[in-house]
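User: Just a sanity check before I run the rest of the batch. Below are the structure tokens for the first item. I only need the designed sequence back.
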């Protein structure tokens, strides 16, 4: 049975997941020319989207800032993260809001086979361990890309 009391925590939980996903996205969205994956990036031309999706620095120090001309580039790992995570969470939010609206309207459609299947799909989306592992793993993968690329670049500078 889908009621408002069931849907409200689901909607709030999905929005909390969105905030966590945004925080983790900021950890893998800073472009540097020495990244191992530096040749693969996406240029974001829209200013407001650029400020949301691309972090300007990786650390708090001034050495961790991205060059001004690179602040519109979303690295490969950040692109993959954004596409997968934000599409996934958009589907979660959309389905949760559909449930909430139908529960508020007390629609008979809530008892249909389609909604039952949609509910099980929403549970799979929300509780999927692989997705949570992906969300946490991509910033780690980015840091590995950053560290190895920086080390390689520093070795070249010493020569």
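Assistant: Here's the designed sequence for the first item:
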């Amino acid at each position: 049975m889908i009621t408002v009391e069931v849907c409200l925590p689901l909607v709030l939980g999905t929005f909390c997941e969105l905030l966590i996903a945004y925080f983790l996205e900021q950890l893998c969205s800073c472009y540097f020319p020495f990244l191992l994956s530096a040749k693969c990036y996406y240029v974001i031309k829209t200013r407001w989207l650029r400020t949301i999706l691309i972090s300007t620095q990786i650390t708090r120090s001034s050495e961790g800032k991205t060059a001004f001309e690179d602040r519109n580039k979303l690295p490969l790992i950040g692109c993959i993260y954004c596409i997968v995570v934000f599409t996934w969470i958009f589907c979660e939010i959309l389905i949760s809001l559909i449930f909430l609206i139908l529960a508020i309207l007390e629609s008979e459609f809530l008892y249909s086979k389609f909604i039952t299947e949609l509910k099980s799909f929403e549970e799979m989306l929300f509780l999927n361990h692989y997705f949570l592992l992906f969300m946490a793993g991509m910033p780690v993968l980015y840091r590995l890309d950053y560290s190895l690329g920086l080390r390689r670049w520093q070795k070249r500078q010493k020569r």
